[in-house]
Amino acid sequence: MTMTINERAEVLIQALPYIQEYAGKIVVIKFGGSAMQTKELERAVMGDLHLLQLVGIRVVLVHGGGPEISEMLKKLGKQIEFIDGLRVTDRETAEIVQMVLAGKVGKNLVASLQSIGGKAIGLCGLDGHMITAKKRDGVHGYVGEITDVNVQPILDVLEKGYIPVISTVGGDDQGNVYNINADTAAARIAAALSAESLINMTDIRGVLRDPGDESSLISVVPVQDAPALISEGVISGGMIPKVECCIEAIRRGVQKVFIIDGRVKHAILIECLTDEGVGTMFTHE
Predict the structure, then answer these.
(1) Domains in the chain, start-ordered, CATH in brackets?
(2) How far apart are CA 37 and CA 55, in angstroms?
(3) pLDDT of residue 35
(4) Dihedral of the CA atoms 131, 68, 161, 258 (nearest 10)?
(5) Other beta carbons within 10 Å of 42
(6) Predicted confidence band at 60 (pLDDT cuts at 50, 70, 90)?
(7) Staple 280 to which of 39, 56, 206, 276, CB 3.0 to 4.6 Å?
């Protein structure tokens, strides 16, 4: 459908109060493997981030890259194993994770942003001791549990007018490299930055009352209601750790946290700059 000039103007007017609300504030976007399905979708996301930056919003992009990691492990003949949804990571696999995320995936996202006129700099959790971690447990190997987040490198990049593109690997004082869950890293980074909002892009609409019915979207979830939704089975499976990360971000001070469908073109703009919204918002109240 072609919009008239008046309809386009109305869209811009509707966005104005949201632009004013977010101006100068930090928005953290978590862009995961499930949302990075096609180059067309990726380019649409990069366009959204560039526009947010142009209207004065300080954008931080945190990305995963599970499918790319698995693809590289297969090429190298490495065994792929998951326990409780987390990749079992020996020392060599941790080095491959670092290579794929901080190298191929992160730099490709930087290049994609810059190809449409954006300004971006790639960082990883090892840079400036941004993400300090320790072994999560004795089962998953070099899967890291975050012990500290130093946001100064991120703030330095934002201050210079760039979008930080952050790969989620961490390290410790002994030089070990850890594979960090991207949802967890995004939540901790958003909290440490006192971000206005955290937007998690995934491959479903949000929290669904009936997991088999995408029209049963729950638009708003106060954090105190989330445990009941988990116990009732409304939130289940792979959504549980995502929702737990949303709760953690809210409890650590992030104002609003969203789970949105990364398969929808311009979902970020619809969520941030319109009355409608497209996903589930987690709130304090």
Answers:
(1) 25-279 (3.40.1160.10)
(2) 27
(3) 63
(4) -80
(5) 17
(6) very high
(7) 206
